[in-house]
From TrEMBL:
CDD domains: PBP1_ABC_ThpA_XypA. Residues 1-27 form the signal peptide. Keywords: Signal. This is Periplasmic binding protein/LacI transcriptional regulator. One of its GO terms (molecular function) is carbohydrate binding. Transmembrane segments: none annotated. Residues 51-305 form the Periplasmic binding protein domain. Its main location: other. It is found in: Cell envelope. The lineage of its organism: Bacteria, Pseudomonadati, Pseudomonadota, Betaproteobacteria, Burkholderiales. InterPro entries: Peripla_BP_I, SBP_2_dom.
């Protein structure tokens, strides 16, 4: 797929007196984080060039993540120039994209890796070249990242497995649709799934296989399982919402009452929230805005220095769960929220804004 480029225009040069006043404002110590800075920060003489290397843009969640990144106040006012690199679900492609950003001397990199282990080497190269790298959504192995902003996927795996156990009464046959093998989200959600399943000895996993976060792959996989195990599947764990939606569609296509085979997902994309309202599945919300905009704020803190104030509203929304501090923590954990029919409309409004 072609690169997605979002380029903002530099703000017009300020008059001498106004420029001096703005500089004095930026030099002040950060204010308490009860709310984002009320006055837009003037753009620097030259925008920060930030590359966002994401594992792939076919799925709805990463599309949401990219949209939220581009909506960050620093991008919209010209402080930051964002270039989004589509990794096309391939670790080598992402490594080559890092080489490009290093050669072109980008100021900073936001990284959403496809592979936990393979993602570490390009981060090493960038940091060695003096380019800070902040991870978001998925992780790399080791402590090579400058910082990380994202959800704990082990917790997500536990939450979805517990929801399914409740739906099936803690017994029966299930199938598990996994994410791309080797990605941190797949590894950690599987760990959470298995922790819960280990406590339920009357549950049998008939099959588990990756659908690579793909709705189409998941639908085909689920259709095959329904044929291979006729009348035997009592529940489905799908490690993201696109996979859950594919499984739901396969069940309905087979003419089976969806309420007889509970399906659980993760992410909180719009189509999944709508399916929750219809009683077709359950899911947990991971906040694309908090991940993307939070990561950019942390990266800007590295580039600007101690005077930088976080500009996204997410820091006030999650002030208790992920306090900003001085903006230099190694990890910021965004909380999960279970989506149920009672709160579905509120979440739909949030993701469709």
């Amino acid at each position: 797929m072609p690169f997605f480029r979002f380029t903002t225009v530099l703000a017009a040069a300020l008059a001498g007196g106004l420029f001096l006043a703005a500089a004095q404002v930026r030099a002040q110590a950060p204010a308490p984080l009860s709310a984002p800075a009320p006055v837009p920060v003037p753009a620097p003489a030259k925008p920060y060039r930030i590359g966002a290397a994401v594992y792939g843009l076919k799925g709805e969640f990463m599309q949401m993540w990219t949209k939220e990144l581009k909506a960050h106040p620093a991008v919209k006012d010209g402080t930051v120039q964002i270039t989004v690199f589509d990794g096309n679900y391939d670790a080598l492609t992402q490594s080559n994209q890092f080489d490009t950003m290093i050669t072109q001397k980008y100021d900073g990199i936001l990284f959403v890796p496809i592979d936990l282990k393979a993602g570490a080497a390009p981060v090493h190269k960038a940091v060695k070249a003096g380019i800070p790298v902040v991870g978001s959504n998925t992780r790399v192995q080791g402590e090579v990242l400058t910082s990380y902003v994202g959800n704990d996927d082990v917790v997500a795996g536990r939450m979805q497995a517990e929801a399914l156990m409740k739906a099936i009464g803690g017994k029966g046959n299930i199938v598990v649709i996994e994410g791309p093998i080797g990605q941190s989200a797949q590894i950690e959600r599987a760990r959470g799934n298995d922790e819960v399943l280990a406590r339920h000895k009357d549950v049998k996993v008939l099959a588990r296989k990756t659908a690579n976060w793909s709705r189409a792959e998941s639908m085909g996989l689920m259709e095959n399982w329904l044929t291979a195990f006729p009348g035997q599947i009592q529940g489905v764990i799908a490690q993201n919402d696109d996979e859950a939606l594919g499984a739901v569609q396969a069940i309905k296509t087979k003419g089976i009452d969806i309420k007889t085979i509970p399906v659980v997902g993760v992410d909180g994309v719009a189509a999944a929230i709508t399916a929750v309202k219809r009683g077709e599945m359950t899911t947990n919300f991971q906040d694309a805005q908090a991940q993307a905009q939070g990561a950019l704020d942390v990266l800007l803190r590295q580039l600007v220095g101690p005077s930088y104030r976080p500009r996204s509203v997410v820091w006030s929304e999650y002030a208790q769960a992920m306090p900003w501090g001085d903006g230099t923590a190694k990890s910021y954990e965004v909380p999960w929220t279970a989506i149920v029919p009672a709160n579905a409309d509120a979440f739909l409004q949030k993701v469709r804004k």
